[in-house]
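User: Teach me something about this protein's shape.
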Amino acid sequence: MPLRKKKSPTPQRMVDDASSRVCFAYFNALGQLQNLAPDVELAAEQPGPPSIMQCVEVIVPQGLKPGDEMSTTVNGVPIVTTVPAGAVPGKPIQLQVDAVRCLAQEVVRAHRETNDLIGVLEREHGTETLQRERLNELREQDEQITERLRRAVTDAEAARTRVQEGLRTVERDHLS
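Assistant: First, the predicted structure itself:
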């Protein structure tokens, strides 16, 4: 069976995929927030959205010691923290992170990626308005070409008729 060469995704396909990732990020974020949210009674006035802390386990990178700054990712979101006292490189530690902030950043990142891809699509294919203008230009050119072809067909039919009449005249003259 011959191997098929994998096609590069089109900008439109890339935007569609990015949009799916945005939807997934929202769905994932909302589901996680629901699972992490404590049961609270609703008061008449809420002071604002509470932080929902989430405990995550990360591995301390090699070469770091307690007090060093450490970068990691949680739910795909970059987090910078300080290596706690007693932590050992290569061993897991528990971090408390603001789940709302992490999930919100994930959604924002997915939106930015989608907007970047929309920009690529518009640069490659122009805006929708420019595409409509180009389509109208092409339709106008098509009408002009069609009209020229119709005139050429009409002229060709007239020439054919004249040639046929000329042949009949020659035949008559020749037979008489």
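Now, about its shape. The first strand starts at residue 53 and ends at 59. Residues 11-37+49-125 form one domain. If you'd like, I can walk through any region in more detail.
User: That's plenty for now, thanks!
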